Amino acid sequence: MTLIPLPAQPADTPWPTAQWPEGERLAGPVAAHLDNAFAGDAMARLGRTDALLVVRDGRIIYERYGEGLTAENTFPSWSKAKSMTHALTGLLVADGLVDIHAPAGAPEWRTPGDPRGAITLDQLLRMSSGLKFTEEYGPDAPSDVIPMLFGEGQGDVAAFAAGFPLAHAPDTVMSYSSGTTNIISRTLAQALGKQGADFEAFMRDRLFAPIGMTSPIPKFDDAGTFIGSSFCFCTARDFARFGLLYVRDGVWEDRRLLPEGWVDYARTRTTAAHDDAEPYGAQWWLGIGGPGSFSANGYDGQYTVLVPDLDVVLVRHGGTPAALKDNLRAFIGEAVEGLRYATP
After folding, report:
1. End-to-end CA distance of the chain
2. Do 225 and 189 contact (CB within 8 A), yes or no?
3. What are phi and psi of 292, to 5 degrees?
4. pLDDT digits 0-9 by tens, 98-115
5. What does the DSSP 8-state code read for residue 8?
6. Which residues contact 205 (CB under 8 A, 6 or more apart)?
7. What is the H or E stretch that residue 313 is in?
8. How far apart are alpha carbons 151 and 141 in whole angstroms?
9. Which of 62, 71, 162, 178 is the most exposed place for a label (fewest CB within 10 A)?
10. Could you give all domains of the chain from N- to C-terminal order, each with its CATH number?
11. pTM of the shown model
12. Each residue of 216-270: pLDDT tens digit?
């Protein structure tokens, strides 16, 4: 698969490390389309929108918040945290502390002959580990993610997820699973020898602080594992900073933070078979903003959408019921398509 090139970084590329540069504010039909997310009838079409932010060429060109909310408010990441876990993995790859093509080494899989012992970090990152795990959120649907996050597994989310048997041979079927991301998160902590507050300090020192993210509030379980599947609260502007790091190929202010090729790895479609209509890379979804786009998605309608050929980052937060998800996805797709024709 040929990837759309990431945008070039000329000498005058702005970096929002301290504050966001402002571009000419979006106007016309695209701005009106985005404003419709806050209109009186929007709840029935898209659910509640709390924040919409568009960055183009490194500058904010659109920003609006729901009633009573501002740029200072933090919002739940839900599964957007998975993409942060991808970044944290890249940092340890750069340090030589993990090899994504080596067995992940979960303690639950170390019994001789256990077929799960061959599962690699790469397979976990691409959701193709083969582990049985049911990712459902409805109150009446069989679910493994709900007990992991809020029930019997919440004290040690990685151990809960790693306890499941194989449903498929590794690397044959892509099956979206929050459990696999938490196994990754624990693997990173073990490689670093840091848990809880020490791991959080690593996150801040190596990922958040270098790109100016001051608002993140990551959550940990009782075992000290970052719940990388689901829980890192941030402002919309900080979610946009994280997105911009990926649009800029893991480089920030001429300093490479993520290994060369790590962003391309994130946005390369997994080859494992899967039934989901949405293609998947490595802890990032593909295509919601059109060909070449990739995104961090949260189940309740949270999105950080990256469009390399437009040098665009679009952040949306709110609460969207499952029945309206297709409407929201179409809304985002139409916004990106409109940006293709909007005057920079």
Report:
1. 29
2. yes
3. 90, -10
4. 999 999 999 999 999 999
5. P
6. none
7. strand 312-319
8. 15
9. 71
10. 28-339 (3.40.710.10)
11. 0.97
12. 999 999 999 999 999 999 999 999 999 999 999 999 998 999 999 999 999 999 9
